[in-house]
Amino acid sequence: MLLKLFNRVPSLTICFILSCSSIFGQEKLQIGSETTLSCSSIFGQEKLQIGSETTWELFKYDTARIFGGMGYVYGRPLYWEKEDWFALGGVTLATGLSYLLDDASSELFVNQGKYVPTAIMDYGFNVGSPQNNYMITGGVYLTGLFIKSEKLRRTGVLLVSSASAVGLLQQLLKSAVGRARPISGMSKDTFRPFNSNREFHSFPSGHTMLAFTNAYAIAKQFKNKWIKTGLYGVGLVPGLSRLWDGEHWLSDVVMGIAVSIFTVEAIDKYLDNEYDKKYNMEDKKIDWRLNLTPSQVGLVIDF
Asked: Where is the Phosphatidic acid phosphatase type 2/haloperoxidase domain (predicted)?
């Protein structure tokens, strides 16, 4: 008799299977793809194997998922449904309204920036910079990889994939749009596409996108609304700091936040089909079904 126990996305599956094995065969208990415990008959051998996947194999799998997530998010607009287009309309409206307020809000924020503590300004700049961003996201992933925590690995993959996706996108948009920064002394309506001068790389805010992407991705790992709110607040500081120092308009920051949310949500959905475990996973209902094949009959219980 063969007894198998294995994990399967998105639930734990217990499958009892009746096979054609005789007393000369094996009885085997398998848990997940990484842990195997087998116990044979009196004519066989005993074997215990735990952690069959190596760190290198896990790393290769996760790297493929990082690039897969990026491809998934870039291709999502091709499969948008009505509610997705409504969401895009809402983002466009919010960005348009903030655009109307760009002049007044920029003056207000720059004046406020004179009184903001240097430590907060430095924090906002440093957290939103690409090199520091990858130190944080990479640190989370590598920790999960070496301790072989699937939940932490998945969180790290979500962080790295999301940050890479928004990082590449914001570089392309900055160059293509060519919007003048407030600090340049030019108006909010000044655009010079594909200008190499960084003074024309205002839209969208890259610091906002990277920082809020991290904050939003980490917040998704918690159910507590106060923890989520706190993380969102921390993630907004880099965007505010860029308004205070005159590097961005309000509409640059608003669009950056919207792109961050869309990116994390899309990649998180993609990873649901690639990993068995995640933080903040909802409880599943028990599901029963009969498994029939030419060589075996089984009862499968999902819960």
From this structure: 155-268
Q: In whole angstroms, give the CA distance from residue 257 to residue 263.
A: 10
* Share of the chain residues as helix, strand and coil, in percent rounded to the nearest 5: 55, 15, 25
The answer to whether 20 and 295 are in contact (CB under 8 A) is yes
Q: In this predicted model, what pLDDT tens digit does every residue of 33-42 receive, in sequence order?
A: 444 333 333 3
252, 202 contact by CB (below 8 A): yes
289, two tokens: 């079904």
Per DSSP, 13 falls in state E
| Residue 248: C-alpha distances to residues 32, 111, 255 (Å) | 49, 14, 11
The whole-angstrom separation of Cα 66 and Cα 275 is: 12
The alpha-helical segments, DSSP class H, found in 23-117 are 55-75, 82-100, 102-113
Domain definitions of the chain by residue range: 2-52+283-302, 55-272
263 forms beta bridges with none
The more confidently predicted of residues 208 and 23 is 208
For residue 293, how many C-alpha atoms fall within 13 Å in the half-sphere facing its CB? 10
Exposure pattern of 115-141 as b/e (b: 16+ CB <10 Å)?
eeeeeebebbbebbbeeebbebbeebb
pLDDT in tens, 85-104: 999 999 999 999 999 999 99
Q: What is the largest CA-CA distance in the chain?
A: 85
Q: Percent of the chain at pLDDT above 90?
A: 73
Q: What is the distance between the alpha carbons of residues 33 and 57, in angstroms, rounded to a whole number?
A: 12
Band of the pLDDT at 280, cuts 50, 70, 90? Answer: confident
CA distances from 148 to 30, 53, 156, 157 (A): 18, 10, 12, 13
DSSP state string for 204-263: S-HHHHHHHHHHHHHHTT---HHHHHHHHHHHHHHHHHHHHTTS--HHHHHHHHHHHHHH
For 25, what's the count of Cα atoms within 13 Å in the CB-facing half-sphere?
10
